[in-house]
Input
Amino acid sequence: MKEGQKLWTRGELILAINLYCKLPFGRLHSRNLEVINLANLIGRTANSVAFKLVNFASLDPSLKARGIKGASNASNLDKEIWNEFFNHWDELPFESEKLLAKIEKTTVEKLNHIPENELPKEGKTREQIVKIRVNQSFFRSSILASYNDTCCITGIQQSEFLIAGHIKPWGIDEKNRLNPRNGIAINALHDKAFETGLLTITTDFKIKISSVLKKQNKIPSVQDFFLKYENQSMILPSRFLPDIEFLNYHNNEKFKP
Output
């Protein structure tokens, strides 16, 4: 470490990973206003924050699988906090949002635009609802950032049409509810088809359409919206590739061949 530099704290690194998850890969640079904002909040330069984000990229297994290395000098603490975060998707995202709210001198509810009139005044029920809403917001942000606001089936890039869909359903695997490798950016129509097993994505990232829809091959809308995608490759995210384990689950447990 150069003279005059200060070590990154656990809290600062958690905030940096929070931002890493929410930013598209191509925006991990010092000119990004969100990078500049975090730098101001924690008393560091934008270059320092951007460099830390690129350090995290070097630890991302999805990027390694694609041959993208990132910076090569991540510290032991970087690795430790990365592993802590990525092995505790059920806890660390919410912790990072609470930490961000605290440093921005606001509440986690306001930070995530949760209207007070939609919440109980106090108590455990309120805490549970807030945590669920915050986690859902974090998951959506991380998925849409990974896919650059692009539907993995059609390529449509209108975020209002997109859903951060779960590969392994929310109610089945609590530990991986917020794991971005358990998510895909997908438009509402194909999300419903995916959810009900009329469409799946294979472990080699090919789109498969159910025979239920194939039997309707004379219907133009079925041809246009579904059958033409059969065996096409999904549009891959820039990071957080869908986990093979989750795809296997969907192929075998949800899909209607």
Observations:
- Residues 10-144 form one domain.
